[in-house]
Amino acid sequence: LGTQEGARSGGLVSRLFGRGDSAPRRVLDDEMLESLEELLIASDMGVDTALRVTANMAAGRMGQKLSVEEIKRLLAEEVTRVMEPVARPLPIFQKTPQVVLVVGVNGSGKTTTIGKLASQFRAAGKSVVIAAGDTFRAAAVEQLEVWGQRAGVPVLKAAQGSDPASLAFDAMVKAEEEGADLLMIDTAGRLQNRQDLMEELSKIVRVIRKKDPTAPHNTLLVLDATTGQNALSQVETFRKLADVSGLVMTKLDGTAKGGVLVALADKFGLPIHAIGVGEQIDDLAPFDPEDFARALTG
Ligand code: GDP
Predict the structure, then answer these.
(1) In this protein, which residues make up the domain named AAA+ ATPase (predicted)?
(2) Nearest atom (ligand 1) to Cα of 108
């Protein structure tokens, strides 16, 4: 598996004070606090969260001389504290098929994430079915089929432009017939027409509940780390469109450090089930709060 730290270098504090132990110790004063606040805010952490993290870090330490390594460690501890409650793998239900609806804007990494999850569940001995619910984008369906092949998982599709809800219903039937453990349903991500999308998503939910009143058991929102603050408004929007139960953040292998995840954790408290750390099938890692905090602040 990829890790966040491996692919990245140079977190926030290094950018401010340089790396390593050769840097001189510094007095924790108002000026330093302000620099740290600015740094965290610039990382998309959000003003309130940034102020709280720095205040907690400084509590009882004002006037002390700290090494750069100590500053990194203290900040990372505070960020870890915020992130620990939301770090939770996708829960496995006893009830089968477990139905997971996957939502998010186009390009966020939905298809890729579904493929990676399918592969992980397959490796764990689960049988998986995927439904290509974005019936309007032919390319999306094709991509999903490629991922299905890679993961060794069947992908159900329908004619282009046909009703995603009826595909979802057929997929429920098929998943039940096959005794599948997990059914993942991809959905459209056209935010340009929210009303349409809302109707489409709520119809999918209505229809799958005819087969299983407890479904969907999870609604995963996939977010792209490179969109920074945008992730906040995407969560707000998708929570209005669907009953989002957890998040996956993709593209944390690039330069994006995902500071916005801290703001998200603080504001919404939604579980972070996994993170995308590359384009390959194994590039989906559990969300590790400590790794994440160290990579962000380091
Ligand atoms: P969708 O439109 O939401 O289904 O998005 P896709 O799954 O097609 O992904 C869009 C692009 O992002 C593709 O080029 C993927 O290879 C890429 N991508 C997805 N997840 C990751 C990730 O974790 N890291 C990187 N570097 N690229 C990713």
Answers:
(1) 96-243
(2) 3
